[in-house]
Each structure stands twice: as C-alpha cells, then as structure tokens.
Design a protein that fits this description.
The chain is α+β, with helices and mostly antiparallel strands. It has one domain. The chain is 39% helix and 29% strand. The strands form 2 sheets. Strands 1, 2, 3, 4, 5, 8 and 9 form a 7-stranded antiparallel sheet that branches. A two-stranded antiparallel ribbon has the order 6-7. It is elongated.
Length: 212
C-alpha cells in the first residue's frame, strides 16, 4: 500500500505541474498581451501537427533527484540570458521570466525605404507616399516547469516555452495615418534559442541533457 500511495501522489503531482504550466503560461500571455486586440492567446496552445516536434524542442530530461537545483539553475541561466525572474513557485517547479529588447530589423528598414521610394509617384495623383510600420520594441517571456517523470523521482523533466509581444512604429497608407503601438504576439520557435538555454543549463548542473 505505501507503494501505491507514493505512485498516486507522484501522478497527482505530475498532473498539477502540467496544469500549472498551462495556467501560468496563459497568465503570462495575458500580462504580455495587455491591450493586444489582434491576437488570440488561446491560439498559442492549440494542438498543431508539429506540436510534438515543438514539445521535443522545448523539453529535456536530466538524471537527478534534485529538482530544486534544476529550478534554481534554470533561473540563473535565464538571468544570464538577460531575463528577469518575476515568479518562482518551488512547490510545483514553476518559474516565469521576461526581458525587453529592441525589435528593429535591418531588412524591415530597407523594405520601408524602398516602398516609400517607389510610392513617391503617388504625389502625381495628390496622394502621399506609403510609409509601412516596422517593429520597434519587443518583450520576450519564458515559462518553465520541472517535474519528475518516474515514481522514484530519479529523472527530471525541464520544459521551457518562449513567447514575445512586438510593438510597431507609426506609418501611413494614402491619406490614412497608422498610429504607433500596434502589437502582435507569437510563440518563439527558433531551435537555437532552446538549444542555447539547455546547453547552459546542462553545464550549470554538470549533467547531460537528454532529448524528449
């Protein structure tokens, strides 16, 4: 009976951690979104054909019983990557962090210039040139959860998800001005970002990270 109780507790804990990751991520998305009106946060959590590949990219296994060390090391790695930890709940192995960065891209500035240049001909029909908005600022967020994947808690799973909200500058189209501040929200799926995080985490805890 003790074995059954331990297995039951472990299963319950695993479910709670998964729920906390989803709930915490939704809260994080909501906080990032603010007054975003053109994005739907629930779209980030819809199951797509590539969801399994994304989960594999976001997840690593570590052979250790020390879940607390993994969570602490994860927080330190995120801070090393420029994030600020805003919430950490050790009881369920959860933390979230954010950082703000410029979103300017050289390619967008070039496109903006050429569209403006080519549209100068509009002045012949008494229309102003087109000025397309470009990305100016972004807030990147990370939601992370750790959990044991076996009843003996000798193997731990670490899953991290990165998101961002991007704010655009002003622009114009014809006689209509496009005000600054338009936003879009998206999940970040750059494999290098996840590989970098897990490589640093593996080095920090002196353990090999196994792919999901």
């Amino acid at each position: 009976m003790p074995t059954m109780r331990r297995s039951s507790n472990w299963a319950t804990s695993a479910v709670l951690r998964r729920l906390y990751l989803v709930a915490g991520s939704l809260v994080l998305v909501g906080q990032l979104a603010g007054c975003v009106t053109h994005s739907q946060p629930e779209e980030l959590f819809q199951l797509m054909p590539e969801s399994a590949a994304h989960r594999a990219m976001q997840t690593r296994m570590f052979e250790t019983k020390d879940e607390t060390e993994l969570l602490s090391a994860s927080a330190a790695v995120l801070q090393d990557l420029g994030f600020q930890v805003e919430e950490s709940v050790r009881d369920v192995g959860f933390l979230r962090a954010t950082k703000e960065r410029s979103a300017r891209e050289h390619g967008q500035d070039i496109s903006r210039f050429f569209v403006f240049l080519l549209s100068t001909a509009l002045v012949l029909v008494q229309q102003p040139p087109i000025v397309i908005p470009v990305d100016l600022h972004q807030k990147i967020a990370a939601a992370l959860v750790t959990r044991p994947v076996n009843s003996d808690a000798t193997r731990q799973e670490v899953r991290v998800m990165f998101y961002r909200v991007v704010w655009k500058g002003d622009g114009s189209s014809g006689q209509q001005a496009i005000p600054p501040g338009q936003q879009r929200m998206e999940m970040l799926r750059d494999p290098v970002m996840y590989q970098t995080f897990f490589a640093k985490l593996s080095k920090a805890v002196f353990l090999e990270a196994f792919a999901f």
